[in-house]
Amino acid sequence: ASAALIARNTNHTGPVRGLDINNFQTHLLSSGAVNGEIYIWDLNDPSKPYSPGARSSKLEDVTAVAWNSQVPHILASSSNSGYTAVWDLRGKREVVALAYGGGAATAGGPAGGAFATGGRRGMSDVAWHPDNATRLVTSSEDDSSPIIMSWDLRNARAPEKILTGHDKGVLSLSWCRQDADLLLSCGKDNRTLCWNPQTAELIGDLQAANNWAFQVQWCPRNPNLIATASFDGRIGIHSLQSTNEAEIASENRTPQPEGADIFDQGNFGLQAQQQPTLSLKQPPKWLRRP
Known about the structure:
Structural class: mainly beta
Distance between the termini: 49 Å
Number of helices: 2
CATH topology: Methylamine Dehydrogenase, Chain H
CATH class: Mainly Beta
Number of strands: 18
GO molecular function, one term: structural molecule activity
Main location: membrane
Pfam family, one: WD40
Strand content: 25-35%
CATH architecture: 7 Propeller
Subcellular location: Cytoplasmic vesicle, COPII-coated vesicle membrane; Endoplasmic reticulum
Mean pLDDT: 85
Helix content: under 10%
Largest sheet: 4 strands, antiparallel
Radius of gyration: 21 Å
Number of domains: 1
Shape: globular
Low-confidence stretches: 103-119, 267-272
CATH superfamily: YVTN repeat-like/Quinoprotein amine dehydrogenase
């Protein structure tokens, strides 16, 4: 381990919950921690991190940071204060702070809520649209309002859509790079859900874990694969194409002679290791009929 360590730095004064590497300049790493601390690190010289601007008064503990997928100098950071701040690193300033105070918003329709004063609901994660530089989603970790909000920065007063389906707070988001119609979320209800964020429709539900699911990610190179992590100590790798695995397994099971028990089966123990599958209501972009 000591041979693998490249650098160590103690600039942050508390726990670091957010990390993200810039898609365009892969030597740039952003990190977020307590008290609104956000640093940009140049991995070629990690000894001198710099700040994206003056510390925001709206951010308390930073829960996630995410680089814009189209514009290399735009960064978003979510916080447990209920605000999500968007930073312009070229201008070294905070350009907008998003917050939602509730209201008559309904799943699938434009939000009717007013701009919040902050502190209502802790924001747990933020993810940028893979193709549109002005759109992003944020998630609430508040059990009383476990929602995902879709925003357009051209009208940042209220979210465009509210995605409702989780029973408890949402902890992680991942937007598919290859298909903007696929968004993953997971949370304290042990569930991992797949959404169409354009229509706010719930299109897939992965079998629940045994504990909080706190991280979900699309595989960046192979979008057929997703990974989930939960507090039961497991990381699950799931495929979008293995939707009939249970049926295939039952068809291929060799019949056992009369009087045999489970210990006589050649595949003893394999059933317990089978991963749950994610069956979607719509085909991913790369599997649609041309």
